[in-house]
Design a protein that fits this description.
Distance between the termini: 18 Å
Number of helices: 3
Radius of gyration: 12 Å
Order of helices and strands: EHHHEEE
Helix content: 25-40%
Largest sheet: 4 strands, antiparallel
Length: 87
């Protein structure tokens, strides 16, 4: 996939964070960018939490974020996390 930002695709977390990418997302994301407070807390605990990867998968699969007049979904591509506009 394209690794450059566009108006329809915004980099949120750089994949350089490795296994801590989901945790970094939880740190940077505002409360409305998480499905639940519980999910946020689990991600903030890091990969030592046994639910960490399951919660991250749920977020990537189900979460939709509102930005302006558009809805966005979260995508992980080669480690990087992106917001992708739903058209």
């Amino acid at each position: 996939m394209d690794t450059f930002e566009t108006p329809d695709r915004i980099l949120v977390v750089d994949g350089v964070h490795g296994i801590y990418v989901p945790q970094r997302y939880a740190v940077l994301a505002s409360a409305h960018d998480m499905a639940t407070d519980e999910q946020r807390e689990i991600l903030l605990e890091g990969p030592e939490n046994p639910e960490y990867w399951d919660i991250w998968d749920e977020i990537l699969t189900n979460l939709r974020v509102k930005r302006g007049n558009y809805d966005w979904y979260i995508e992980q591509d080669e480690g990087d996390v992106w917001l992708v506009k739903i058209k």
